[in-house]
Structures are given as structure tokens and as C-alpha cells.
Write a structure and sequence with these properties.
Belongs to the peptidase S1 family. CLIP subfamily. Residues 91-309, 341-597, 696-911 form the Peptidase S1 domain. This protein is mainly beta. It is elongated, with a radius of gyration of 39 Å. Bound molecules: 2-acetamido-2-deoxy-beta-D-glucopyranose (8 copies).
Length: 911
């Protein structure tokens, strides 16, 4: 009646787990970094125009590094603590151990009904691995059987309903080595491999294999087993639906002891709990590679429940979730967290846990007002910028005519949905093009703990590992490192957000549950990502948040931000055990960008700037009347920088015969011989050469501040000072508001040579930008023109170049600050103007710039109008902006600037 294991066998270890730190923290995948250039080299577009700009946009919230916590816990654990040996006491007081069984409650053992065919057993032994060796007997519990309860439908004549319960005389003492297993109560057996355990040949040849062994088997289709059971008088109807067969193709194995379990270990709380799927019923002798026949447990659940109830046991504990949670601290840790074994001790790294009760900060839940949303309509999304939630197309649509109305996110906050977009090619209830966008009314207010997720726009991922967002029972997701508190029925109703570590499983590793493959006639396509993780879960441990992200932090340009790789589309148990599928936004990038970055109104206005053609007959050198009635001459536009400047501002420009001839007021004509303009234009070239020579000299030396110069003037008896920047041998730039503070001085004094200690005083003429507006601080720029030409050489050597690129700006910029009367620089980084709107309560124009200055809190720092912000990647640096407005209303680290690249033409026109 008992059979031996002839194949690969594993002895069971008693493991002592070592305690290190008793705290539990959320696990994190380490952020991989791609081959992006260093931050200092990055040049960024002025306005966000594509999904790729996200990392710059939210740079300030990025983390500079990621901490990875580790810890361990103590426990004595045994792999098959439910395994029972069932014995018959012989007249000579020895015991024949001829059947196996599984402890399923503290007083009941599940076994096969045929074990009592000749004589009922009378004793059960638990917690013993080697039945014939006393060295491991310290944990063994031998208990007499009070009652053998065969299933009422079982008959000794047939093999059907071969299942029975043993009532023990007393309760077992639950211990690390003796604990009930749980029951798989689902009719569907989704597992591709199962484990059978038993003592094998005990009872036949004493001493042959007295140690508990396990073997891995696969469930077989019924047809495949029919051959082996033909002409079996005990199976007149063949196998019935309550039976299953399982075997092993490769190994020459037998199944376990009669009555013993066919089981699977399911993951929850970072532990694995054995679940009994079936009871070993019968098979053929060993050595013939034939399947065994098993009685499935699921069809008998209600009989087991009522039997247990009848004898006063709490049948609620048979429920998979309750059972798993009840004995959680007695279960083994999942292999991933087991770091290493040293003898009987074990170290754990809980950060490697597959599942964790934690929220994605970017996850939102989508709601339909006044509609009690049925769980099948549960919809989630991911925040990707201040006003946008990315989700599935099906989550943007109406239910019974009701549109989704609002989203909730971290901390129960609610935002109203204003716009809904679904992919135009989405067809209802299909798995194709299932992607959509929701826009919310109030902007999300981000900070270092609440950032949006950037959209991963590449077709491949940096690492195959990522985090799936789901929800599950709180009680199955806590990490218990000590004794877990008792649970009751109410504690199994609380759900929490769950993050699971899954792998991309493209190609052959993708194994989808049948219910989904049937809905995918042509299989998965390029837009889909198949993902999953190996272990199966206790049901309700994790269910995908549909529309929620598959995410991963990515380290770029020195900061890490969260990325959304894909959106949960379908699957069960978060892809654990069997694969699940998500949709990749990267595949729908064009559609997404068309929704997120529609052409801007300003760009349209720009195209209809006023242009007036004057007299078609006028040629170069002819007199003409410029706008505002000023007398002028027709010249090539190159000789009239003012006109270019006006044109870009959208102001009236008059052309002569051709589009390249403009009517230029006399005083604005600048012929190519203008050495100042040339100096400004050629600055970049010169700098490039010098930087090439310095290549290899290592790190950028601390930025030279030789181009910074105090501008001094007297106001009554008071001396006032403003900071200027030398940009050519005759020109210094500063903010108009700084000079303007009381009464505009017509002449100022420059104190150059501060850095060399040879102070010189030079007089300069002040030219304020004609459109400067003291209220809005727009066009906040003043130009100081040197009157004395003797210092040109010295100034020329000190100057900074002007950043001339009008569409792109460096990401990392140095801000000049005053700390304790000393000039220093602080690192600052670009913010998109659109994202500074709230800080300044108005839309910044293209000729303004917005930066976030870091580390302002460390010391008393002064940032004043007129102070430069420059890119110091190259020697001398590029002047990018001049502070036009110290700080914003809400955050003093956000500073507004005059963007120099917009004023090149004005500067040249005033030379
Ligand atoms: C019992 O097990 C111990 C350790 O595995 C071994 O040294 C001893 O020989 C065994 N005794 C018997 C009777 O098998
Ligand atoms: C939820 O929806 C499913 C199918 O859409 C339906 O079978 C079920 O009855 C609904 N449940 C409730 C409580 O409305
Ligand atoms: C969110 O709301 C739920 C019930 O609506 C409540 O149980 C929970 O404590 C709230 N959480 C926070 C952080 O306010
Ligand atoms: C599958 O993933 C591997 C590694 O992640 C990658 O090398 C391979 O190109 C992928 N194949 C497909 C078809 O996406
Ligand atoms: C497929 O799964 C096997 C076993 O889990 C693993 O070794 C292999 O790397 C996986 N292949 C891919 C392409 O992910
Ligand atoms: C152009 O105007 C100037 C004075 O602004 C005048 O001296 C000159 O004669 C004019 N030339 C022609 C061709 O009309
Ligand atoms: C400019 O505005 C500031 C306040 O923003 C004020 O103190 C100053 O007097 C104004 N200057 C002029 C010339 O209006
Ligand atoms: C501005 O910089 C960007 C990025 O480096 C570059 O692609 C673009 O050509 C530059 N534009 C000009 C006018 O130099």
C-alpha cells in the first residue's frame, strides 16, 4: 500500500534563521541607469514637447541615490510540517506506518479512504522526518486516532471518492515542525508542477527509505491516463471529474504514500504555505514511469467543512486566505529572501521579497460619481504630469451613460476629471489599443515624495525586472517577523495597495491563463508586454490594478525618477504563477504626444507677425520711412539687428524691394565692421577652441567669476551697487530693475579687477531695454556701455559668452549668489516655463527663464536682480540668464530670469 520514491529525493532541513534587524521596510528595485550623458552636458529644449522631456521636467524631485535596507528574522521552520505518518500498532507494540496523510486542522488529518480497507489505523505521527531514527524525535508528536471518517460516497469496491478524515484524540501542539496545511478549493488546477511527499517503502522493507522524500510531478490530461486504467474493475466509469492524474515524463518515479498529499506551495507574506491539491489514491508499482491517480480536494471542501464543524473545529480556517494567514509565522520564507545558509542558520534579505504592501505614488483610482462601481469595472491610472493621468481606453469611457468623474490618489485626495481621451482605434472589450488619457482640473502638486511617473518611450527596458501595481488583502501582504496577531473574519476584508516584483516574459516564457488566450485570436502584438513571476500566490494576495503602472525607477543625469513601462491590461494574481499582460505606452507614443502636446497658440501667433511691404521699387540705399515715422534707409537686414529683434517680438517691420531689404532707422544701421557685434558673435568660436585644448584637464575647475563686476552709482549720499556681467570688451549686462530701484542713473561706475585685487573704476553709460516693465519685470535688461576704451583688453579677457541657442538651454546652470559678502555659485537646474506658472502666478514668456536653485537653506544666501546664471561647462562660461525677479511667491528657490538668447539682437542693435 505504500510505494517508494525511485527518483530525485530531497531531505528536509530544519533551518534556524538568524536575526539581524527587526524592522521591515519597502523593497526597492535598484534604479538602473542608461547611457545618458552627464547632467552638466545636457542641453534641454525650452518647452516640453515630447514624452522624453519628463526627466528634465521633474528633475528637482529626483532622488540622488537609493537606499536598500536589509534585515533578517529568527525561526525554526520545516518544509512539510503537515506531513503525517499513519500507523497500525501491531500486537508486539511496533507500528506499521503504511499510509500518509496531511494535517489540515489542529485535530484532523486528511488521507485516502482506502487506507482503512483492511483495518482502520490507530495512530498518527507528526513532526518526524526519519521514522526509524530517534535523533530527530525531539519534535515528533504521536497521537492516537479517535475516529476514521471515510467520505460517505466511498465504497471499498471502487476507487471513486477515495478520501477520508482522521479525527485525533487530542489537538496537536502547533509548532514550527507541526502545522496544518491549507486546501486548494478552486476546481481549476492552474499549476504546471506539483509536489508529492511520502516515506516511500516503509512497511515493506524496513530501513530502505525511512526518510521523508519529495518528488515533483506534472498534472496530465485525462486521456493520457486512460491507458493505464483500462479494464480496472474498480473504475467502471473510467476516471471521474473528481480525480486527476499526475506523473513525471523524465524521471522514473513513483508517487507518494497512499493518502499522502499532492501539493503546491503558495506565496503570501513573503512565506510559502503548502496547499493540498489532491490526495494520493492509487497507481502502478515503481519503475514504470506511469502516472498516479489522485483524489482532488476541491470537490470535497463542503464535506470536509461540515465534518470539521460537526466536531467543533472552526471550519472558517479552511478558507485559503484564513488558513494561510493563521499559521503564517510557522511557514518557510520564500527562497528569494533566503540569503545564505550557514549550517543550521539562515540569513534573510527581506528587500528581495516578491510582494510588498506599498503604494505606487503615481497610482490613481478612477471613479464614476454616484455609481457603486462593480469590481469588474475597477479602474486605475498613473499620474504622468501635473494634469494628466494615463490609463486604459476602457477606463475613460462611460458606464451606463456615466462618464468617469474623478480620481483619488495618495492620501485620499480627489481631483475632478475635465477631459477624457481614448485611443481612436480602440474597440470595446478588445485588448488592442486599450490606452487613454484623463485630464484633471486642479494640478497635482508635486514634491520629493510625490512625483509623477515619466513614460518610458523606448521599445526595450533597461532591466527585465519591474514592479507591478496591484491590490490585495492586507493580512496576506504584511511582513511578519515575529508572532503574527490572531485574525478573525473581519480582518480579511481590508485591502491594500501591493507592489510585486515581476519579470518581462516575452517569447516562450509567456504562459497566459486560457480564459485570456481565447480572447486573443491573433495572439499578443508589439504593444503588449507579457510579464510575471514564478511562484503562485494564495488567491487574493495580489490582483492587478488595471490601468495602473508596471513601473521602475530609472537613474539619469544624476537623479532617479519613476518610470511607467506599461499599464496593467489583463491577467490574474499580478502575473504570479501564470503570465499577465500590460500595454506599452511607448507603442502609442505618437497618439499620446498629439494629445499631450497640441500645437501651442503662441506658435500660431508667431506665424502671423505683422509684416509690411513698403514700396516694391525701393532698392538698397534708398530713403524710406520706418515704423513710427522714423526716417530710414533700405539696407540688408543683417545691417539692422533692431529689425530682426522687432520682428521676433511681433512688432511691425517694413521691407523694401525684397524680403532681405528692410527699412532701417538711421541710428540703428550697423555695418559689418561693428567690432562689438562681431566680438559677441565670435565669442563661442573662440571659447570652443580653448575648451578643446583644456580637454583632459579633468573636472571643471570651480567656475571662474572674472566676468562678474559690481556696478556702482550714487543716490544722494548713498552708494548703490548692482551686479553686472561682462559680455564684451565694451559691454556689461545687468537687470534694469536693479538700476531702476530709485531713480535711473545715467552713468555708473564699474569696479573691475576684483579678482586680481587691482581695482579700477570705469564710467559707463546706461541703456535700459525700451520695453522694460517695472511691474511685470518683463524685458528686465540693461546694458552698460563703457565710455573709456583703455580697459578693453582686460574686459575682453574676462567676458562671458552669451548663450545664443533660442530653442534649447543647458540643464545644469550655476547661479551667482552672495554669501556673507562673498560671491559663490549654487547649482541650479532648468525648469520649463510652463511649470513655473504657479510660482509666479502668470505665464512666463519665451524671453523669460525659470530655474530652481538648490541648497538655499544651508546658509543665508542673497540672490538679487541682475545676478547672472551661467553654464560653466566651458571656461569663462555662457551667460544664460540674468535674475529679473528674485523669487517666487511660494518657493524662494524658484527664480525668474531674463533669458539672454532672446535679446542678442537688441544687444547688438544698441552697440
Ligand atoms: C540517525 O541519524 C543520524 C544522523 O543523521 C545518524 O548518524 C545515525 O546513524 C542514524 N541512526 C540510525 C539507526 O539510522
Ligand atoms: C458585477 O458585474 C458582473 C459582470 O459585469 C455581474 O455578473 C455582477 O453581478 C455584478 N455585481 C454587482 C454587485 O453588481
Ligand atoms: C482614506 O479613506 C478611507 C475610507 O474612505 C480610510 O479608511 C483611510 O484611513 C483614509 N486614508 C487616509 C490616508 O486618509
Ligand atoms: C525579449 O527580452 C530579451 C531580454 O529582455 C531581449 O533580448 C529580446 O530582444 C526580447 N525579445 C522580444 C521579441 O521582444
Ligand atoms: C525563461 O524562464 C527561464 C526559467 O524561469 C529563465 O531561465 C529564462 O531566462 C527565461 N527566458 C527569458 C527570455 O526570459
Ligand atoms: C535721403 O534723405 C537724406 C536726409 O535724411 C537726404 O539728405 C538725401 O538727399 C535723401 N536721398 C534721396 C535719394 O532722396
Ligand atoms: C519698480 O518697482 C519697485 C517694486 O517692485 C519699486 O520699489 C520701484 O520704485 C519701482 N521703480 C520705478 C522706477 O517705478
Ligand atoms: C540648440 O541646441 C540643440 C540641442 O543641442 C540643437 O539641436 C540645435 O540645433 C541648437 N540650435 C541652434 C540654433 O544652435
Amino acid at each position: 500500500m505504500a510505494y517508494s520514491f525511485c527518483g530525485v529525493a530531497t531531505t528536509i532541513l530544519l533551518a534556524l534563521v538568524l536575526a539581524i534587524v527587526p524592522t521591515v521596510e519597502g523593497q526597492k528595485l535598484l534604479a538602473p541607469s542608461d547611457d545618458s550623458p552627464e547632467a552638466e552636458h545636457m542641453i534641454v529644449p525650452n518647452e516640453p514637447k515630447s514624452l522624453d522631456d519628463c526627466h528634465f521636467r521633474y528633475y528637482e524631485f529626483g532622488k540622488k541615490s537609493i537606499n536598500k535596507p536589509t534585515f533578517g528574522v529568527p525561526a525554526y521552520l520545516r518544509e512539510f510540517a503537515h506531513m503525517a505518518a499513519i500507523g497500525w500498532t501491531q500486537p508486539d507494540k511496533t507500528v506499521l506506518w503504511n499510509c500518509g496523510g496531511s494535517l489540515i486542522s489542529e485535530r484532523f488529518v486528511l488521507t485516502a479512504a482506502h487506507c482503512a480497507q483492511r483495518q482502520e489505523p490507530d495512530v498518527v505521527r507528526l513532526g518526524d522526518i526519519n521514522l526509524f531514527n530517534d535523533t530527530d524525535d525531539q519534535y515528533a508528536q504521536q497521537i492516537r486516532i479517535a475516529k476514521f471518517i471515510a467520505n460517505p460516497s466511498y465504497s471499498f469496491l471502487y476507487e471513486y471518492h477515495d478520501i477520508a478524515l482522521l479525527l485525533l484524540e487530542r489537538k496537536v501542539v502547533v509548532h514550527d515542525t507541526v502545522a496544518p496545511a491549507c486546501l486548494w478549493n478552486d476546481e481549476e488546477i492552474r499549476f504546471t508542477s506539483l509536489e508529492a511527499t511520502g516515506w516511500g517503502a516503509v512497511g515493506f522493507v524496513e530501513g530502505q527509505t525511512p526518510t521523508l522524500l519529495k518528488v515533483t510531478l506534472s498534472p496530465f490530461e485525462k486521456d493520457r491516463c486512460s491507458n493505464f486504467i483500462e479494464n480496472n474493475r474498480r473504475l467502471p466509469n473510467g476516471l471521474d471529474s473528481n480525480q486527476m492524474c499526475a506523473g513525471d515524463d523524465k524521471q522514473d518515479t513513483c508517487r507518494g504514500d497512499s493518502g499522502g498529499p499532492l501539493q503546491v506551495k503558495l506565496l503570501h507574506n513573503t512565506r510559502v504555505t503548502p496547499f493540498i491539491v489532491a490526495v494520493t489514491s492509487f497507481g502502478r508499482p515503481c519503475g514504470q514511469s506511469v502516472p498516479g491517480i489522485y483524489t482532488r480536494v476541491a470537490p470535497y471542501i463542503s464535506w470536509i467543512q461540515s465534518t470539521l464543524k460537526e466536531w467543533g473545529e472552526d471550519e472558517w480556517l479552511l478558507q485559503p486566505q484564513a488558513c494561510a494567514r493563521k499559521y503564517v509565522e510557522l511557514r518557510e520564507y520564500e527562497p528569494r529572501v533566503q540569503l545564505k545558509k550557514i549550517g543550521s542558520q539562515q540569513q534573510l534579505d527581506m528587500t528581495k521579497a516578491h510582494l510588498f504592501s506599498d503604494s505606487s505614488r503615481q497610482l490613481v483610482e478612477i471613479h464614476w460619481e454616484s455609481l457603486r462601481v462593480n469590481s469588474s469595472n475597477e479602474c486605475y491610472g498613473v499620474i504622468i504630469d501635473e494634469s494628466t493621468v494615463l490609463t486604459l481606453a476602457r477606463c475613460t469611457m462611460g458606464i451606463n451613460g456615466m462618464e468617469p468623474t474623478h480620481v483619488t490618489f495618495v492620501g485620499n485626495k480627489t481631483h475632478i476629471i475635465t477631459h477624457r481621451y481614448k485611443h481612436p482605434n480602440y474597440e470595446e472589450s478588445s485588448f488592442r489599443n486599450d490606452i487613454g488619457v484623463l485630464k484633471v482640473k486642479e494640478p497635482f502638486e508635486f514634491n520629493a515624495d510625490f512625483t509623477p511617473a515619466c513614460v518610458w518611450t523606448k521599445n526595450t527596458y533597461l532591466e527585465p525586472e519591474m514592479e507591478v501595481t496591484g491590490r490585495g488583502l492586507l493580512e496576506l501582504n504584511r511582513l511578519y517577523t515575529e508572532a503574527a496577531p490572531e485574525i478573525d473574519r473581519t480582518s480579511l476584508t481590508n485591502t491594500v495597495d501591493v507592489l510585486g516584483i515581476v519579470m518581462e516574459q516575452n517569447g516562450t516564457n509567456c504562459s497566459l491563463p486560457k480564459q485570456y488566450t481565447e480572447r486573443l485570436p491573433s495572439g499578443l502584438s508589439q504593444e503588449h508586454v507579457c510579464f510575471g513571476a514564478e511562484p503562485f500566490l494564495v488567491p487574493s494576495t495580489c490582483s492587478q490594478a488595471f490601468g495602473g503602472p508596471l513601473q521602475r525607477e530609472v537613474f539619469r543625469y544624476g537623479r532617479s525618477l519613476m518610470y511607467v513601462n506599461a499599464l496593467n491590461l489583463f491577467g490574474r494574481d499580478c502575473g504570479f504563477g501564470e503570465s499577465a499582460v500590460a500595454v506599452r505606452p511607448a507603442h502609442h507614443r505618437n497618439w499620446l504626444e498629439s494629445v499631450l502636446y497640441p500645437p501651442k497658440e503662441t506658435e500660431i501667433v508667431y506665424k502671423r507677425q505683422p509684416v509690411t511691404f513698403l514700396h516694391e521699387g525701393l532698392e538698397e540705399g534708398d530713403n524710406c520711412t520706418a515704423p513710427n515715422g522714423l526716417p530710414g534707409v533700405c539696407v540688408n537686414y543683417m545691417y539692422c539687428p533692431k529689425v530682426t529683434h522687432d520682428g521676433l517680438r511681433g512688432r511691425e517691420v517694413k521691407f523694401c524691394e525684397t524680403g532681405s531689404l528692410v527699412c532701417c532707422p538711421h541710428r540703428n544701421i550697423r555695418y559689418a565692421t561693428n567690432s562689438d557685434a562681431e566680438e559677441i558673435d565670435s565669442c563661442e568660436r573662440n571659447q570652443d577652441t580653448s575648451s578643446d585644448e583644456e580637454e583632459g584637464s579633468g573636472e571643471t575647475s570651480s567656475a571662474s567669476l572674472s566676468h562678474v563686476v559690481p556696478i556702482v552709482w550714487r543716490n544722494g549720499r548713498e552708494e548703490r551697487v548692482c551686479i553686472g556681467t561682462i559680455v564684451s570688451s565694451r559691454i556689461v549686462l545687468t537687470a534694469a530693475s536693479c538700476l531702476h530701484a530709485s531713480k535711473l542713473p545715467s552713468e555708473v561706475e564699474l569696479r573691475i579687477g576684483m579678482s586680481t585685487g587691482r581695482l579700477q573704476f570705469i564710467a559707463g553709460e546706461v541703456i535700459v531695454h525700451p520695453e522694460f516693465d517695472n511691474t511685470s519685470k518683463k524685458h528686465n535688461l540693461a546694458l552698460i556701455k563703457m565710455k573709456d576704451t583703455r580697459n578693453e583688453e582686460q574686459l575682453g579677457q574676462s567676458r562671458a559668452c552669451l548663450w545664443r541657442n533660442s530653442t534649447h538651454t543647458p540643464l545644469m546652470i550655476d547661479q551667482l549668489v552672495l554669501v556673507d559678502r562673498t560671491f559663490k555659485t549654487k547649482e541650479a537646474h532648468l525648469k520649463f516655463n510652463t511649470d513655473c506658472r504657479r510660482a509666479f502666478r502668470r505665464v512666463l514668456s519665451a524671453s523669460e527663464l525659470c530655474l530652481k536653485v538648490d541648497d538655499l537653506d544651508e546658509e543665508p544666501v542673497l540672490i538679487d536682480d541682475g545676478m547672472p546664471a551661467f553654464w560653466s561647462k566651458r571656461d569663462g562660461g555662457y551667460l544664460v540668464g540674468i535674475v529679473s525677479h528674485r523669487s517666487s511667491v511660494s518657493d524662494r528657490s524658484i527664480v525668474r530670469y531674463t533669458r539672454l538668447s532672446s535679446y542678442i539682437d537688441w544687444i547688438k542693435s544698441e552697440l
